[in-house]
Design a protein that fits this description.
Number of strands of chain B: 13
Shape of chain B: globular
Strand content of chain A: 5-15%
Structural class of chain A: alpha/beta
Oligomer: heterodimer
Strand order of the largest sheet of chain B: 6-7-8-3-9-10
Shape of chain A: elongated
CATH class of the largest domain in chain B: Alpha Beta
Number of domains of chain A: 2
Radius of gyration of chain A: 29 Å
Helix content of chain A: 55-70%
Order of helices and strands of chain B: EEEHEEHEHHHEHEHEEHEEHEH
Amino acid sequence: MRPRIVAAVFMKDFVDAIRDSRVLVSVLLPVLIGVFYNVAFPDDDTRRLTLAYSAADATVLPATLQRALPATFELTLEEVASANEVRERVRRDAHLGLVVPAGFDQAVAAGRAPELTIVTREEGSLGGTVALALDGVLRSMAGQRPPATTAVERVGTEQQPPLIAELGPRRYFTLAAAIMIIGFVALIVVPIILAEEVERRTMEALTLVASTAEVVAAKALVGIAYTFASLGLLLAATRLSIADVPLFLAAVAVLTVGMVGFGLLLGGAFKTAGQAYTWSGFFLVPVIMPPFLLGSGLPDLGEVALLATPTTQATRVAANAITGKSVFGDVPLAFAVIVAWAVLAYVLVLWRLRRNTE
Amino acid sequence: MIAVEDLRKHYKDVRAVDGITLTVAEGEVFGLLGHNGAGKTTTIRVLTGRALPTSGRASVAGHDVATARSRVRPLINVVFEEQNLYDRLSGRDNLRFFARLYAAREARADELLDRVGLAPAAKRKVRTYSNGMKQRLLLARALVNSPRVLFLDEPTRGLDPTSARELRDLVRELSRGGVTVFLTTHYMEEADALCDRVAFLSQGRIVALDAPRELKLRYGERAARVLLSDRTEHTVRLDDRVDASRIEEWMRDGRVLSIHSAEGTLEDVFVALAGRPL
């Protein structure tokens, strides 16, 4: 294998292939789908509320409440002139109202239990939820410690949670688009650029100076380069935050290399680029679908079959990397499955190359 | 420069090449003629190391094409029957790409474009080229590595007469420069005009091999076409004394307007040997 030859073929293909409209569409379509999902499913958890209050004199209560709420609550404070106006604002659009009597802060600090009127809409509303936080705020204003320290602990359920529940819709669909990119490039673009070389007989001119293995290696590198360029574009456009970048890159890289191997096999099976473009789509479905059926209540056998696919395992690892949590266990096993598929793909590619040479 | 000895290439039951023996000298233009399926392209495939022979031996510049392919490849190049160019790239980019593959200077691309008369179209995408331009670009590509042996597979097929003539002139020029040219063609006139020697291939076997003139003399009939003053034309067989003496008689009577050679053509020879025309 001569790096100079591989680099020359790679450079030619990297520049030339994208001029083929079929390749361009296959590279950009999943990126655009990902961007669309990103816009259509904002998983912004922040809840925006308005607190209308009236206070006869200065009080720190609204501001303290604002600070005491979790980061997922964004409380906008609106001071109005009277108690009636507070009621009116809550009736109209404010989520919560407070009527703070004169000398309230001093009375709380002195333990005199002043009367605070809370105006909410019906029970169970968002404002009602915020009102529950008032108790802690008032205790702290009175200089009291919380009566108890609470800790939240999560336990796993027997069944795998659906991926979407773990990631949230925006991150889920962005990850779906990333897997789609790998599938489209590996199973459509790579077969097209390989089959086109055979169809136009340019392969014969190439193999006068290059070995078939060198040409195939260059095509594989083009597939990998297109995949990473598209993924970069997707991540930049969606601003997807990834907690564990090395783990994410490792999962994506190993999956890409393996899938490109299968793309090379497909490319060798088609006589024309048109055939590759038409029929590769059938191979795409079983590749990009399985990961998203995880935890969807399939029978055990179906679940085992899903877990045997490289895309499912890569998605599990990528989900862990994105969330920074161990949503799915057995990361080493997941890598073992992906690598096993990649090895299988390249053993078959080498077998075909050897058969062609003979 | 090329030596082939009892070369055979069989695909299962098909004997594409069935025991051919030939040699081609340095700087010679050698033509391989035959019907479709006669084994011309297979012979080129074996000689260029793209197919292994079933048996027999073939060497280029002393290197065995089957066992020393890596030594043969830098010395040869091929103009393929199909116009296998990258048509989304420009003519220049096509040549630059192959220059990189052969580790030649990139400036070689422009030199060759100039040589084949494509310099003004260097930046145009190949898909906008005419057939003749593509064929000239193919020839330029085949010269990127300055080959000592150039294989041309049907180089003028589908070309208009002017483009075909331009290409033949380029081939002659290469031959004068010492490049050995091995070509296949359907066009007998082309082979006659271009080749120092030709071989007729039929069903994978060589049925005749010699200089075109020798073949015509050996297998054709020596004759002359005589046009008389009464506008009648007569074909006279020169090997027949009685028939030939008629020319003398017409000359004496002052009736001869013109005499043309009517020797057999290469095609006549081919039909006589292979049984049907190309």
